[in-house]
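Reopening this ticket.

The earlier resolution said the output was attached, but the attachment link was broken on my side. Pasting everything inline this time so it's all in one place.
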Amino acid sequence: MMRGLFAAIGFLTRVPVPARVFDGTASPSAQLAWYPVVGLLIGGVLWCLGWLLSGAPPLLAAGLLLAAWVVLTGALHLDGLADSADAWVGGLGDRERTLTIMKDPRSGPIGVTAVVLVLLLKFAALASLPHPSAALWLAPLLGRAALTLAFMTTPYVRSGGLGSGLVGESRGACTLAVLLTVVCCLLAGWLGLRALIVAGVVFTWWRWACWRRLGGMTGDTCGALAELSEMAVLVALAL
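Inline output:
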């Protein structure tokens, strides 16, 4: 059980974990149920950093928080966002063309623009929120829970990608993880409910868009989902 948690930490963050957690003796899908927990751990680190920076100028605190956020996650989902943006525009509505562009490791102007805009909105939201804020753990929690829900409910359309081995049989544990995420949000009161609604809207919209264009999700579109969910939650709670 704990191997799944450590595997999820190793996959979603830059925190070093023992290499043996990836040795294949357990189903790769076992880590899916731990994604929301990893999001909560990331949020805990950010909340503590926000508390330490509570006396700093808002813009400086926001910049340091965002930098720590990107470093902690290794920009994994930002890469997916850039690839998805390039493919969505360059694909011109064609499924195969979209998937081909998504595989290109190079980022075009659309991808760079998407990353800059998302980071800019995150920065502006962080600068507008009091520190520490519940948004610092709600956003990464919901961003990772969205990934669990996406893999549970949406076909994975590309074999051999980073997410292909995650599609497995841990549906019961994943369902429990998503339900516990909802409970955590509700315990945060009105802010948590607002964050949950916004994340739900983003998930529904992006899943529909991916289904319509691709017939399912890829690792890159899941990365984009995480980033868009985090950004939307931060903005919604800052408004």
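Reporter confirms the inline version is readable. Residues 5 and 22 are 11 Å apart (CA to CA). The two ends are 39 Å apart (CA to CA).
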